[in-house]
Amino acid sequence: MKRKPTPDHLLLDQQFCFALYAASRSITGLYRPLLDPLGLTYPQYLVMLVLWEQDGLTVRELGQRLQLDSGTLTPLLKRLQAAGLVDRKRRIEDEREVDIRLTAAGLALREQASDVPKCMAQRLQLSLDQMQTLRDELKRLTRQLQLSPTED
Amino acid sequence: MKRKPTPDHLLLDQQFCFALYAASRSITGLYRPLLDPLGLTYPQYLVMLVLWEQDGLTVRELGQRLQLDSGTLTPLLKRLQAAGLVDRKRRIEDEREVDIRLTAAGLALREQASDVPKCMAQRLQLSLDQMQTLRDELKRLTRQLQLSPTED
DNA sequence: CAAAATTAAATTGTGTACAATTCAATTTTT
DNA sequence: AAAAATTGAATTGTACACAATTTAATTTTG
């Protein structure tokens, strides 16, 4: 008695989601050798990108930007603080909120990070155009998912 | 004295990699309500997909397929074993290797999982064609990165 | 064939992710 | 204004990821 083979739609190689998951981890791995010298992990680098863009955000605002909650951000930010890259202090206007500010060292690190995107782009072997197209499709996808989380 | 603004290439919204990272986590979140009833996490679901496709792989072979190492797989597989979905035992031919086999319950779960891909596809709001195109681009990207990890 | 090298899992340690709860501060209601 | 509801971080607990080390088994070499 033969066993039914796996239907096509359950094959790993058919899964859009695995392709995404694998690509995401692959790329994080590609960042590692670039970020190690800066003393940053990839999620920490993302936090720094946001702060370089706009300093003095609260944990909540950082979370909105990066789609991460306080359970992830609080310990991550404490590590950035321990590394001397950010300061954390309660807002005077509202003591519930914690203000995250770059230190001088944190701001200075931006210069060192300045080459990272170019290095990555080279390693990715994608044209700028391909990269933008793919990026925008992914952004659209993410936006779509966040608008209608369970409906449809 | 004005501070230099962040150069464009360091803006979060410009980052291809953040788009990928955010999309990946978004989609994992979308799987959660579908997989919860099966008692699986998303990475556990991926392991099950591989085993449904080909039963009796070693930890190493599973790792190759999913790009995960034993540090991730060993505890994950122990949890699947604790859930009664797989058996783990040393190979007789080579006692270093651990053979992972579906239990009857593990095999039976495939029927329940059968609708998951269709549900996901619906929620993603992408045509089958768009999904395949995007998937194949991501696969190509991952393959590319694994071929030339640091060179170029 | 015994020592050295290699290999496969497991273990250890660090750092995310994220659900759920807690705690304190602020707003809203009554 | 006091009680109730809400909000923002932090905390707790579970589950990945992944580098690095350890352990045991097998191969390769001298």
SSE blueprint and pairings:
The structure is a homodimer of 152-residue chains.
Chain A: H1 16-35, H2 42-53, E1 57-58, H3 59-66, H4 70-82, E2 86-90, E3 98-102, H5 104-113, H6 116-124, H7 128-147
Antiparallel strand pairs in A: 1-3, 2-3
Helix pairs in contact in A: 1-6
Chain A binds a DNA duplex (30 and 30 nucleotides) through residues 25, 28-29, 32, 41-44, 58-60, 68-76, 79, 90, 94-98.
What gap, in angstroms, lies between the N and C termini of chain A? Answer: 41 Å
Assign a percent range to the helix content of chain A: 55-70%
Proportion of residues in β-strands of chain A: 5-15%
- Which CATH architecture of chain A would you pick? Orthogonal Bundle
What is the CATH topology assignment of chain A?
Answer: Arc Repressor Mutant, subunit A
Main beta sheet of chain A: 3 strands, antiparallel
Number of domains of chain A: 1
H/E series of chain A: HHEHHEEHHH
Give the helix tally of chain A. Answer: 7
Net shape of chain A: globular
Q: Greatest interface and its residue counts?
A: A-B, 63 and 63 residues
Radius of gyration of chain A: 19 Å
In terms of quaternary structure, the protein is homodimer
CATH domain class name of chain A: Mainly Alpha
CATH superfamily of chain A: Winged helix-like DNA-binding domain superfamily/Winged helix DNA-binding domain
What is the overall pLDDT average of chain A?
93
Give an overview of the whole structure:
Two copies of one chain form a homodimer. Chain A is mainly α and 152 residues long. The first copy, chain A, has a single domain, classed as Winged helix-like DNA-binding domain superfamily/Winged helix DNA-binding domain (Arc Repressor Mutant, subunit A, Orthogonal Bundle). Helix content of chain A is 61%, strand content 8%. Chain A contains seven helices and three strands, in the order ααβααββααα. Chain A has helices at 16-35, 42-53, 59-66, 70-82, 104-113, 116-124, 128-147; strands at residues 57-58, 86-90, 98-102. A three-stranded antiparallel β-sheet of chain A has the order 1-3-2. The relative contact order of chain A is 0.10. The interface between A and B is large, with 63 and 63 residues.
